[in-house]
Design a protein that fits this description.
- The strands form five sheets. A four-stranded antiparallel β-sheet has the order 2-1-6-7, with no helix packed on it. Strands 4-3-5 form a three-stranded antiparallel β-sheet, with no helix packed on it.
- Strand 10, helix 6 and strand 11 form a beta-alpha-beta unit.
- It has 18 helices and 14 strands.
- The C terminus is likely disordered.
- The chain is α+β, with helices and mostly antiparallel strands.
- The chain is 43% helix and 11% strand.
- The structure holds zinc ion (2 copies).
Amino acid sequence: MASAGISLDLFASPAQSPRYSGFIERFFRTLLDRDALEERTTDQPFCITCDRFAFEAHLRGRCSHCDAESDGGICEACGKPNAGADLIDPACVTCGGTPERRPLRQLWFPLERYRSAAEFTFACAWLNPRARALVAEMLAQPLPDVPATQPAEWGIAVPASGYDDQRISAWFELGPHYLALTDLLPEARGNPGGWQTPWTGFDNVVQCFGFDSIYFHVVLFPAIFQAFDPRLRPPIGFITNEFFRLDGSKFSTSRGHALWAGAFLREHDADALRFHLARVAPEIEQTNFTLDEFEATRRDELIGIWDDWLKDLAKRCEAAGGMVPLAPAPRSAPLALARLASLFGDLSHCYSVQGFSPSRAAHLLSEIVRVARRFRAEHAVFDGKPASALEAAGALAVELAFARSLALAAAPILPGFADRLWRDLGERGAVAEARWELLPAMPTAGTAISLSTTGYFEPARPGSEPAPPEPTSEAEAAPPADDIETAPSEAEGEPIEANAEARAEAPSPAERTEPAPRANRRRAR
Ligand SMILES: [Zn+2]
Ligand SMILES: [Zn+2]
């Protein structure tokens, strides 16, 4: 985790934590005490060869909703639940045999009785359109009863007499496990409060999981939470992903069709991997990982475009004395800075619950670099011309504002790169601790700059030379001459530093040109 730049507040081992299993048992007992579970005997698939009931991962057949191959419990293809017994052509996963039906006494949760909790969650919480469509379809029909116990040897014992040969079912552990883990969390932080703090207080809970768990998280868990404690507030948002494939087929550790993150990160840059994974994240459809595409992202984008600009900027900064120049902003600066502010507004949305999209954020980061490269290409004509020295210095300061904004905006996705760039730009403290800016600020004139002249991403391996940089003229269409003439130009003639201070007091040209979304303004305040 650390080698991927991921830090955790808590890493719990449920099997080793008596407090965890104690919490799950208490949760289950509360459901029993509140008459939220009903004892019922139903016919369930039983494998004679294996001499056991076949359920969930022990059972496979075809989904009665979409006809795809499915395990018992939930269909990975359409995301709809099944009762196991209703799978078409069911087979025991262990021996392949066709199970017969045998009566089984279990504790069941009557989900329909708690439908209002699922409806409330659906009405209030953020879900992406595909998840909304799936939940709406399920809520339009009577909700099924759900088994709360299963005939298994592995798992947490059922705290009720007569169920020694059963365990709390996976979903009746997974639901309360969120509460159990937040109950352990304050302990890990040395901060009392228990599970009630995030779940009944003013904190907002957001859950992230795969598409095939939508039913459990949005319909079942809010219902069992309400049965457990009506004060419990459901999450405000659910972030779901589709399947991510490797070389065109499903990851499978049992078949060895997998990439082991620890080994991969010993050979590859974590920031480059995180950036690529964000870019190709399966947010609305299944996507795929190939080593060639990852290498291309690093070589052609991060080294070929980002580093290419930053290395050139580093050399020009060195030549200019290694500090942010004190110079008036060039006439074209407000237009470029307005574009930067607009990109920041979009990025704010991508990092929010409602618009959460690492994929779009990664593309917007690349767009910041492209706008900066275009700005540089336009102003390269000042180089070596004494009559334009002041404008060249002002343009350099604007480019440094782009680099500073890139560091700030890239921090969630490329934390190592962002922090290094941030410090190289003379900013104090870690970029992760820096406040998000609604209007990207100009760097302070006189700040010492020590950008890397060798780039920020690992050099390409032999045989994978960087592709030629993308022509900046194609990266962004040249603005029509009219736009340049009508662009706000109040900043012209003012020193960059004074301009930055003025922006804090009054709406800047950028804000007037392209206001950021209201939600972003609120956050910035
Ligand atoms: Zn299905
Ligand atoms: Zn079997």
